[in-house]
Design a protein that fits this description.
Elements: E1 19-33, H1 35-38, E2 46-48, E3 55-69, E4 81-92, E5 97-106, H2 109-118, E6 123-133, E7 136-143, E8 152-162, H3 168-174, E9 178-183, E10 186-193, E11 200-209, H4 211-214, E12 226-237, E13 241-246
Parallel strand pairs: 5-6
Antiparallel strand pairs: 1-3, 1-12, 2-4, 3-4, 4-5, 6-7, 7-8, 8-11, 9-10, 10-12, 10-13, 11-12
């Protein structure tokens, strides 16, 4: 099996858009983890994607804007809200690289319900806020209800200069052109496309987080090895395609 290369532009252009989203004011926080520690958390037919033998756990807070069906335009108010995802990186049996979301917290209830019931993504309705003062951004998230112990996250970063040439690791962590999800008994790949990420250096000023461990992942004991900021991109999703192996079978 040949694995697709890591490229800053999508290897599979979306010809029939099913969904449009704007991802803005993102911070990418990443920690290395041994592939065997997360392999059991992935959908059937996928395995941890690695760079130099290591895979990564990502914590990504951002502002979602203009979510809408088809090619858009998206909804200006209902489709705009804060979101934070905890993610892993995968490759499937067809060589397609992707993302697996272990959790997604969102500040608006309707997208949470649509995401959970329609796409079967692990969305949670949370109280969230993004505050920017000059070059410092503060993201806060606290889950509603008490079912998960009130898991919360707060990250504060200082944004820096643009990155002219991202490193192989920075491309590996951000240039992801689809997601893998278990959907109606099968693992599917949902492709996306967007312009190359405009990435910036960033400095992590403060972090208090329960979301990574609440997602069933090991506690990250040290600082993230990669901290990146992006003003954002507009994203189009295509038509999902099933993997050959049913999601209910063993790996």
């Amino acid at each position: 099996m040949e694995i697709e290369p890591v490229t800053p532009s999508t290897p599979r252009p979306v010809r029939r858009p099913t969904l449009v989203q704007g991802w803005h004011e993102l911070t990418f926080l990443h920690w290395p983890v041994e592939p065997e520690r997360v392999a059991g958390l992935l959908p059937a037919g996928t395995r941890p994607d690695t760079l130099d033998g290591v895979t990564y756990v990502g914590l990504v807070p951002f502002l979602m804007r203009g979510v809408g069906l088809g090619p858009g335009p998206g909804l200006p108010w209902l489709g705009t809200f804060c979101e934070t995802n905890v993610r892993l990186y995968t490759v499937d049996d067809q060589g397609r690289r992707g993302v697996v979301f272990r959790s997604l917290d969102a500040a608006r209830l309707l997208p949470v319900l649509v995401g959970r019931l329609g796409v079967r993504l692990p969305y949670t309705w949370s109280a969230m806020r993004l505050r920017r003062t000059g070059d410092v951004i503060t993201y806060s998230c606290r889950r509603r209800g008490s079912g998960d112990g009130g898991s919360a996250s707060r990250a504060q970063v200082r944004t820096g200069r643009p990155i002219a040439e991202p490193t192989p690791l920075e491309h590996f962590l951000t240039a992801r052109w689809g997601l893998h999800v278990s959907w109606h008994g099968r693992t599917v790949h949902l492709p996306n496309e967007h312009a190359p990420w405009p990435l910036h250096r960033a400095e992590l000023l403060d972090l208090e987080d329960d979301l990574v461990t609440a997602a069933g992942l090991p506690r990250m004991t040290g600082p993230p090895v990669s901290v990146l900021y992006s003003p954002g991109v507009t994203v189009r999703f295509g038509v999902p395609s099933p993997l050959s192996q049913p999601a209910g079978r063993g790996r």
